[in-house]
């Protein structure tokens, strides 16, 4: 009886009507985008081809930046895309960017809440991913006034020059070298020494020294560039577990957190009963952890009191902001110079002329290297 009932249902006019309605709903949702939001206000132009669940994700392809350029040429400098369940407004002209980032900065200043950032940055206790507000303003004040002021940058010159010499020593061995790897080693060494000090904390975990730090930094950068499936399609949350993304995120956070806990505990231990770094006047050997510990103990300004979690979140900002951006810039600069040998020769002549009889370049020569500045800015 059950089988015969199913056969009758399959041949019934009611099923045909229901299937037809379903096709109409899907096709209309795919080909005829809504022009107004739920509150009645007009939405920006949006491309056709929005699929149920996926939205416009299929239109981005393997090269999203080129796909966005093509879509903007058709739909204008401001358009609406639906990335899964996330409505996303794309501004692709200078005027539109100025409107969002300058004229209406307070309305657009906050980053969207990203699950990966919340997992890795202590529930957004940092500055980079924190919403605009009092916490963000106080955190930014600490970074600008205490960590990135001219005196602090100058105090790290010794670290930069030592790591530059070490990198050049690796290049001079005579054999072929992988510049990408050298740039990663160089930038990781500088940011880790600036943040943690000269003591080697790389042995935390597997005992491979600086290689361990590079591994953890690399995993952190990779995860920040990863969008979990559950963020785009929430009901597919289980895919992140099956693919191992959830496990990798948890492991990377735990490794980084254990490293930061050890660094902070070590700095606090050295401060107890002894002279604090920086007590000798002009010469200031403090690293970022020392500075943040000083701020947590002495900064009386209202709005943000640094605890251990806050210190760890700001350290994470320094690591992420400095590492990937620096070695990517160096890598692209060398790639462009290799592809334009005449420009490389011009830059080499300028540097050799500035070096003179000394045979080497220091930060004191930077004011003379105008073509180098132009190359960096264009890159």
UniProtKB/TrEMBL annotation:
Family: Belongs to the cytochrome P450 family.
A Gene Ontology molecular function term of the record: monooxygenase activity
Nucleotide-binding recorded as keyword: no
Annotated protein name in UniProt: Cytochrome P450
Keyword terms: Iron, Membrane, Metal-binding, Transmembrane, Transmembrane helix
Source species: Zizania palustris
Alphabetical list of Pfam families matching this protein: p450
InterPro entries: Cyt_P450 (IPR001128)
Residue ranges crossing the lipid bilayer per the database entry: 12-31
């Amino acid at each position: 009886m059950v089988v015969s009932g199913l056969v009758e249902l399959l041949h019934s006019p009611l099923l045909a009507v229901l299937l037809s309605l379903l096709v109409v709903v899907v096709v209309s949702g795919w080909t005829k985008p809504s022009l107004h939001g739920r509150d009645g206000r007009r939405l920006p132009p949006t491309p056709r081809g929005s699929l149920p669940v996926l939205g416009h994700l299929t239109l981005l392809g393997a090269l999203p930046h080129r796909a966005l350029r093509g879509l903007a040429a058709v739909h204008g400098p401001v358009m609406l895309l639906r990335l899964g369940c996330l409505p996303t407004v794309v501004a692709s002209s200078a005027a539109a960017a100025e409107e969002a980032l300058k004229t209406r900065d307070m309305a657009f200043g906050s980053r969207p809440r990203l699950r990966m950032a919340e997992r890795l940055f202590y529930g957004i206790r940092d500055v980079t991913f924190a919403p605009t507000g009092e916490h963000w303003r106080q955190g930014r004040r600490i970074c600008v006034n205490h960590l990135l002021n001219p005196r602090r940058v100058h105090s790290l010159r010794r670290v930069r020059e030592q790591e530059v010499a070490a990198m050049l020593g690796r290049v001079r061995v005579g054999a072929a070298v992988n510049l990408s790897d050298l740039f990663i080693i160089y930038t990781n060494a500088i940011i880790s020494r600036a943040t943690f000090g000269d003591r080697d904390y790389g042995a935390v975990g597997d005992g491979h020294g600086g290689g361990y730090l590079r591994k953890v930094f690399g995993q952190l950068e990779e995860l920040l560039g990863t969008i979990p499936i559950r963020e785009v399609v929430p009901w597919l949350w289980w895919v992140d577990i099956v693919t191992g993304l959830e496990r990798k995120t948890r492991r990377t956070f735990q490794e980084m957190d254990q490293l930061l806990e050890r660094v902070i505990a070590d700095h606090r231990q050295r401060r107890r009963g002894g002279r604090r770094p920086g007590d000798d006047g002009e010469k200031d050997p403090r690293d970022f952890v020392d500075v943040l510990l000083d701020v947590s103990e002495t900064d009386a300004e209202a709005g943000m009191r640094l605890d251990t979690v806050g210190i760890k979140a700001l350290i994470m900002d320094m690591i992420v902001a400095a590492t990937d951006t620096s070695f990517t810039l160096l890598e692209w600069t060398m790639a462009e110079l290799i592809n334009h040998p005449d420009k490389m020769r011009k830059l080499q002549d300028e540097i050799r002329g500035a070096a003179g009889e000394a045979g080497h370049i220091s930060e004191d020569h930077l004011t003379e290297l105008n073509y180098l500045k132009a190359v960096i800015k264009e890159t």
